[in-house]
## 1
Amino acid sequence: MLLPAFLLVLIYSYLPIAGLVIAFQRYSPLEGFLNSPWAGWDNFTYALSLPDTMNVIGNTLYIAGLKVIANLVVPLIVALLLNELRLVIVKRWVQTLIYLPHFLSWVILAGILTDILSPSDGLVNHVLTAVGLDPIYFLGSNAWFPPVLILSDVWKEFGFGTIIFLAALTGINPSLYEAALMDGANRWKQTIHITLPGIVPIIVLLATLSLGNVLNAGFDQVFNLYNPTVYQSGDILDTLIYRIGIQNTDYSVATALGLFKSVVSFILISCSYWAAYRFANYRIF
């Protein structure tokens, strides 16, 4: 039963690792892996010396970091609010509605956002003009593009995070709430002194594990929403690697930049799992 999964992982995850050799070559598809001349660390030096690289790394850290924070805070608040609902039917309907965007691809959501945020026909700008404000080109402004990325990512994913926190809330002993109620604690004090301390381990766990995604700002989302006018604030490592490798066919430099990102991500993931074990007693094995 494990053989098909093993073969898939072997073919698509482990065998391609051999292709990383081109990061140290002046790779030519005609000459192949064996005959392409070696370049040593030149591709890494060149990739990191590109005028856009440092700005792209900064964009990646900024966008990914805010996504990590927002995707922890918003689901937590929504879970706490849903936990206060006493109508089970309403609670389930809300859970279902907020969870639906998680199943939609960014190709579909990008089309929806493009229509909603259009400067001429978009719903948002119709509202702005109706109240006397000037329309905003959200997807063409370097000031507005990063907030659009962060808010749209939260809109898509906060339903999934909410379910995780709701599952953690079910593990809190109900007798604690009964004792607090007898002592005169209202719902707010129960939340502060019982609910939040009860789910601190899962909050710490999710926060530490998310450190490994600091360099993953969301290629699918950015690729489907960005354009050359917002490269300054919206270009990330994955999209830069795509343009260098696929559009410019500079495979060696793109592979070098991708390997650099992978090594840094591996270090961050290792640190996050150590922190998860240290502060949340979480173990992989």
## 2
Amino acid sequence: MRRLLIKRWRSSVKTTRLFLCLVAFLSVTFAGNPADADELVHFESAPVKLSPFRISKAREQGEILSQPQGTPLLGYLSRPRGDGPFPAVVVLHGCEGMRLSVKELWPKRLVSWGYVVLVVDSFTTRNIKDTCQSHLPDRVFDAYGALNFLSKQSFVDIRRVALMGFSTGGTATLEGTKIEGNEQLMDHKFQAAVAYYPRCAATQGDATVPILILTGERDNWSPADRCRKRLANLSDDSPPIELNIYKGTYHDFDAPEFKVGRRVLGHIEKYNPDAAGKSIRSVHTFLQKYLSN
């Protein structure tokens, strides 16, 4: 009797395993594209539009102006399952380029929240390795080129797109959403912005959209005091700018690839799981608030 029960148990286990394998096979075969799959896409940065004054002077002098052209760029597109249209987030990397947390972790997180994500690669087509000690042409136009690309996708609700940047990408995010900046020349507009440890400037003044800034108290690469000064100079008419400063925290505090910490050009970059978790929850709440229907 005991041998018979063991034999039946083994048969049951084998049947269950076969069933689970079949379910897994069918899931892969018929589920379609996985939600976190990256698609390499090609687009151009937004061309620098000529001002009315420049056009007028050219006409007076009989000068023929050439049509402005954008810079060819690459991007990594991720999207939730379904037809949409979904809200979206354009992501700008920092001076070191496409690190793991920006290229993979944040897109997966944002897709799981229901957003289409386009991570802009500003370096590859320009043959740039990093810009931590050099200057890169205005990346604001890269962000708006990505927004133009998304405007042509049927699964994106172009009325609900946020700009999100890290380090120098965060600085570009602030530049691209300041009053009287290049944003006023663009065909499409962002609805909100998130900037991780950017270099703030008090002279930027008011914003064009609600902004969330997240930075570390000990970050000497992107000092929090600069951000405090900008907020102190906002007018009563400015969209809200929320500033979250995390105590005892350095640059790149959301990036788990820097668990050990490192020193770059005299600046400490180190992951802080507590600050990372708090910032992620803040981003989730912020995007829900400003990109909801």
## 3
Amino acid sequence: MTTLVRRTRHVLGSEIAGSVVAFVLVVVVFGLASPQFLSRATFGSVAFQLPELGLLTLAMLLPILTGGLNLAITFTANIAGLTVAWTLQANGGVDAGPGSFLLGVALALAAGAASGVVMGLVIAYTKAHPILVSLSMMIFLRGLGEFLTRGGDVSGFPAFLRPFGHGSVMGIPVPLLIFILCVALWHVLLSRTRLGFNTYMIGSNIEAARYSGVNTRRVIVLVYTLSGAMCAVAGTIMLARFNSVRVGHGESYLLITVLACFLGGVNPFGGFGRVIPVFAALVVLQLFSSGLNLLGANQHLATAVWGILLVGVMMLRWLAGHFRTVLRRKE
């Protein structure tokens, strides 16, 4: 196993090596445990379920890289989805045209970005902890959504939305194509732009970044704005997938997005992490979830497993760091 890890790390990089090894373990273990796991149906299901979780993980990634957190991602996505739904209903419901949908998406992006702007401004100018600020936003959005919907669902959308949630292009699900496009966008943003470079600088040392001439307040506001906008994309995809929207949909995704970031090698204190390893970690987690479902595991048990995995990942990373420190001292 040690040899496999070293070879994978040499070829793909240290951040993605762990995810690749985890992928192999998941495929082997669940492939032996269930004959149905290694089937086209399983991987097709993963391809359709991955995008909504993946888009929310991308929304979580940027704040974590700055040393922060966005606990409001799921409710921001649901409010954005409700914005699209209300726009469609105001323009004919099931008879609404593509123009109404585009208007709804634009308004949803604006709503998602607005929640991010508010969080970013408060964090940047008051120096309040991101956990407290995003928790406050989460409570606000949840209460607002439940008040406006009275705790119910909003449904009844045009038929042309179905391909966005269930369609395929050359055998590749449309939601997966949108997710891959967003992964590429985030990869370019973080690796090729000044905003990405400044994001890493702030996560590594915000005071050093400030003394280097970086407008840290502006960067933090932009980071949370982009996070909110990505939540809006996720909310729109969820609307098309389920043909309905409700405030509490996807609450369990919050834990898994954090787990995916950490499993993908992102430093929980900010300053280090890449998009591609996080993408690989998401595939592993989605396969793991599908494997549990095939074995008949209760959904509550699956949620408990996510929590144990999160604790396990943090412990393993601490042990790895401690082991590297000991080796350096011996050298």
## 4
Amino acid sequence: MMLSVLISIYYKENKNYLSQALDSILTQTVRPDEVILVKDGELTEELDNVIEEYKTKYPIIHTLSLSTNQGLGKALNEGLKHCSYDLVARMDTDDIAKPDRFEKQIKVFEKFPDIDICSAWIEEFEDTTNNILSVKELPETHSEIIRYARHRCPVNHPVVMYKKEAVLQAGGYEGFPEDYRLWVKMLKNGSHFYNIQESLLYFRFSRNMIKRRGGWKYAIADMKSQIDFYKLKLFGIPTLIYNILVRVAIRLIPNNIRYLIYQNMLRK
């Protein structure tokens, strides 16, 4: 099966992390047929140099430049237009894919042709992959994923592989949170999901990530997204009220408490 890899990058990314991410996908047991790298706005000279170095070494890397920073969702939508193949793997520029990630995910699509999206577990690490903080586990089967999606995001976006056509039919990325919204739209559109029951990616974690996810801005965005999910008939009024109360509380509590909850209750 022919495979595209879709990546978006913006100026705040770390050039060393970018190199590690690219190395991890270009040395897979099953290598991709193309890598679509979207430059989301003007980058630093360091990042541009790394990208040019890899493009010279690996002709399968193709870049797409956006004049201004559009945000992840819009950048990925633009990148999808340039993916040549229906099977698309997502990758972020600061994570590290395990060597057999693509091989194992492609086997799922080969074995189950009706699957539209396949993700897996991820291991969150700090500094080095020897320092694993937690594993984000998700349910395996489509029916379990539907139930899980009523309360929490059912797919690990950084390690997802999906059929481009299914994403486009659901309307692509939009709003906040871009990934969760897309999965809900795909579920309601009849797409079939599967999560491999093992970690296939190292996810770079930092306390600043938890800090950035707090405050009224995110609380209000959470409320809006939950209302939209209710309108899509993902769940009823009782679940809507419960989800909003829990999510708003987590957004507004002090950062250190949110960090403890994130590590001890929202991860395994």
